[in-house]
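Dear H.,

Thanks for agreeing to be a second pair of eyes. The structure we're designing against is below in token form, covering all 180 positions.
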């Protein structure tokens, strides 16, 4: 068995070097930048909004602002449009860090839009932005299609972020209400 394993092992190592490299290199966001892990510990140059299946989501634009105004927290501006079918409904959103809900708030969709501005992103920490519409008004996240749910990978935070989303049913997250 060992001689056979030793002949296969170099191929596995080479395969891993090619396939397990920098996952973010060359991934474009809808903001037009590219995402990279940075060199020498530098922060990434841009964030990539990933959709269902891991591809870039054209309905999400992530724009990085200046460096965080505080030594510990960065500001997240989160806004959405084309949510007209959900006027008057509650949109709840939160930040997931290591699978746990680190922050949560809510607001009402008005004229098909919403907007939040909060200094809640811990500098140097990694988050997912998860949001859902309480379509059946029961104050509980029910998996799609009952309540639409979305999830955006914000990666590691080094700067203030602006996240703009345009409603898209195709972008519903198959993970459901995980974290809420």
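And this is the sequence the design step returned. I haven't edited it by hand at all.
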């Amino acid at each position: 068995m060992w001689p056979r394993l030793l002949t296969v092992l170099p191929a596995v190592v080479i395969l891993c070097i090619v396939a397990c490299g920098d996952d973010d290199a060359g991934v474009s966001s809808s903001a037009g930048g590219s995402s990279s892990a940075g060199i020498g510990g530098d922060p990434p140059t841009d964030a990539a909004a990933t959709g269902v299946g891991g591809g870039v989501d054209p309905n999400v634009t992530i724009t990085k602002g200046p460096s965080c105004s505080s030594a510990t927290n960065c500001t997240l501006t989160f806004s959405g449009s084309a949510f007209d079918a959900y006027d008057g409904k509650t949109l709840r959103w939160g930040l997931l860090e290591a699978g746990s809900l680190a922050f949560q708030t809510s607001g009402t969709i008005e004229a098909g839009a919403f907007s939040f501005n909060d200094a809640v992103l811990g500098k140097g920490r990694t988050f997912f932005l998860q949001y859902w519409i309480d379509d059946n008004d029961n104050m509980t996240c029910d998996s799609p299609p009952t309540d639409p749910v979305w999830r955006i990978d914000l990666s590691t935070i080094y700067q203030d972020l602006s996240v703009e989303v345009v409603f898209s049913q195709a972008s519903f997250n198959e993970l459901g209400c995980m974290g809420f």
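Two observations from my side: The CA atoms of residues 10 and 98 lie 33 Å apart. The two ends are 48 Å apart (CA to CA).

Warmly,
E.
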